[in-house]
Amino acid sequence: MNIFIRSTLCAVFFLCCLIILHPFSQCMGADPISINAQRMLSTEAKNTVIFMGDVDARQGDTAITCDEMTVYYKEKTNSDDTTSQVEKMICIGNVQATSGNFLGISKKMEYYAAERKIRLIGNAKAWKGNDLVQGEIISHFLDKGVSTVEKGSASGDGKVHVIINQDK
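Predicted structure:
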């Protein structure tokens, strides 16, 4: 199979894995994946696929939008075929991730496959319904169900901010 086609399929497979997380942890099913961007570049020497310009990746009610999305992968060769495995994904510029009643926004988003870790970086905000957590960096470990929020930035006081709306 042509390396460009494998690289593209790898990127689409990775986005499928990422996008079906709700919000980054529950499977949504077999809805089709739609990825739109102004440009796509596959670079074999660097094992990357880059989507550029108004990137919009969607599956069901889950979406990731950003200015640029780079998928890094490594190739594994067995006796019959060569396959690609995603190592990480970096989204830069106007990042927004939505799924159901979850919304996360930041300047940058990183996903690390080996650790199954997602990081929202740069004035990161995450809403679940009307509840909000805000800081400079929000990290979430998918397998552990653990999140950390670091360095508040929006108010300038260096504190993490949380708003929890109680049921009436």
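Summary: The first helix runs from residue 3 to 19.
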